[in-house]
Amino acid sequence: MQKLHYQTGLEKFNRIRNSTNILYHILFIVLSLICILPVILILSISLSSEQCIQDYGYHFIPQVFSASSYTFLWRQHTILFRALGVSVFVTLIGTAIGVLLTTSMGYVLSRPQYRLKNFMTWLVFIPMVFNGGIVSSYFINTNFLQLRNSVWAYIWPLAVNSFNVIICKTFFKSTIPDSIVESAKIDGATQLTIYFRIILPISLPVLATIGLFLCFGYWNDWFQALLYIDNSTLNSLQALLNQIMNNVDYLSRNAATLGISSAEMARTMPKEGARMAIAVIIIIPIACVYPFFQRYFISGLTIGAVKG
Amino acid sequence: MKTMDSTKLQRKGRKKRWTKDDTELSLLAAPTVVWYLLFAYLPMFGLIIAFKNFKIHGNFIKSVFSSQWVGLENFKFMFTSNEAAIVLRNTLGYNIIFISLGIILPVILAVAIENLHSKRMAKVYQTAMFMPYFLSWVVVAAVVWGFLSYDKGIVNSALSQMGKDPVNWYMSPQYWPPFLIFMNLWKGLGYGMVLYLAAVVGIDPSYYEAAVIDGATKWQQTRYITLPMIKTVIIIMFILNVGHIFYSDFGLFYQVPRDSNSLFNVTYTLDIMVYKSLKSSTVGMASAAAFFQSVMGCLTTLAANAVVKHIDPDSAMI
């Protein structure tokens, strides 16, 4: 979408009427506000004092500003940092593993001479229309692969996705000239060397696209935790927020095990603010990053919508 | 998948030998193949527990073989349960609405935003509307709670300021169908718009120029150039969505209503049923529902594709 835009006279003539233009602007301003305001609400609740929430309820603009939710979370940093650590670890390692598995398969599928190309194409394609569902996956992951209460339960199930593989395949097929691969082969390079030393370095756009899909997928995932994680020390941020949403006393209960009396905690802690503050901590990295990487997302969506 | 036929023909023409290159490529693909076997194909094999009285005895694969066959017992149990009708009605009903609105509205918005005079503002709107797509359902549930909480929520304070009684939203099922539809649109609208916009932007401007010279109105240009040009994308999205008609967004139906029992009638869908029976160890029911979902998902995808192929062979996905 980085198209060079110049306006010809014809284009100016073909524009919508000014009144229609204004109408459209109003429509989009309203829609944008509907999409943004809820996030502002969360931020504002997390910055309100607990007393003010108890007395007046939630508001778009804090009646009494207070950073107590955040200072409270800071004092509870063992729980918060552990969850943050799990989330960051899962996102980084998961994305790295996922990108490697996805692009290597995409590259192999894009080689026209490959003997098993048909077989591999079917292997990737069938799961797009038919899947085993969560029940048998659940038993396989817990019983056969022993992923219960392991950080790998977050990572493995989401690492590969056939759509991403096909995006990679389409990208490699259309951007990597066969001559590059052939000349490298004449120079004695193996396919592994070609993939790591030539293909990956010149394919940054598709790596960014797949990486972003995976990154957001891992950061936002809470379902794997719901299925496979019972051990609260392995909670990701999303799982932590989920538990606090279900039980507002979760933090104070866990704080008690850290040596502070739970009665005192329950009295002083900013319950409402703290859980919204966790939501804010989850949202902030996303909100800061996605406007700049939108175009990689869009390019992925565009390739993905082209038939494989 | 059309490329397959042509390569098949090629292969018949000249029998290829297995080369060093093939070995290397196979090695490169091996880790991903292992992933597919473990996380995609083994669960497919595991679907047969829907026909068994599944009991864990040691290893999963061993348990599958040692469990006793019960034929269609699990399916009988599932379909005769009180919930079956509600679950099917909810899953299909919501999905039909989601699919139709989820195509119509984003297409309209994509065309509208492309026609805005200011491209910079268009980019700003697009970015703002994309935001909800990047939030997880857990975060969205927190957002919704901020609005609908009985004693502190924004909506109830607004109601009481207008002199009306507050509503206990999480106990009042009548509000939830439109509400869930709204939430689904809210989260997916920006994504859909961006997807179709990418297709609209890709249309060659000379089509429009020719149309303008022939005196076509904006509406005629949209109807006879834009829509036909993005038809393929629309149809592919349609086939993919129809393939998911027996699936529901677990986060939307489980997290957003906060698993409230009073809302059971309007929020209970197949995925919730699978999850709850799994967690309550009624494995027979869970596996039958999951099997039903997988098979129906596959059948509906193929059926939608066959219909499309019949009407317009070029737009079919497979």
What does this structure look like?
The complex is a heterodimer of chains A (308) and B (318). Chain A is 74% helix and 0% strand. With 308 residues, chain A is mainly α. Chain A has a domain at 76-232 and 280-305: MetI-like fold, CATH 1.10.3720.10. In chain A, helix 5 crosses helix 9 (162-175), helix 5 (77-110) packs antiparallel against helix 12 and helix 5 crosses helix 14 (237-246). Chain A is globular, with a radius of gyration of 25 Å. Chain A starts with 8 loop residues before the first helix and ends with a helix. The model of chain A has no long low-confidence stretch (mean pLDDT 87). By secondary structure, chain B is mainly α. Chain B has a single domain (75-315), classed as MetI-like (MetI-like fold). Chain B has helices at residues 3-13, 20-46, 60-66, 73-80, 83-115, 119-130, 137-148, 154-161, 176-201, 205-213, 218-242, 250-255, 264-267, 270-279, 283-311, and strands at 52-53, 68-69. In chain B, strands 1-2 form a two-stranded antiparallel sheet. The model of chain B has no long low-confidence stretch (mean pLDDT 89). The interface between A and B is large, with 108 and 119 residues.
List keywords for this structure.
heterodimer; A: 308 residues; mainly alpha; MetI-like fold; B: 318 residues; two-stranded antiparallel sheet
Q: Which CATH class of chain B?
A: Mainly Alpha
Main beta-sheet strand count, sense and barrel state of chain A: none
Please compute the radius of gyration of chain B using only Cα atoms: 25 Å
Average pLDDT level of chain A:
87
Which residues of chain A form runs of ≥5 with pLDDT under 50?
none
Give the termini distance of chain A in whole angstroms: 22 Å
Which CATH class of the domain at 76-232 and 280-305 in chain A applies here?
Answer: Mainly Alpha
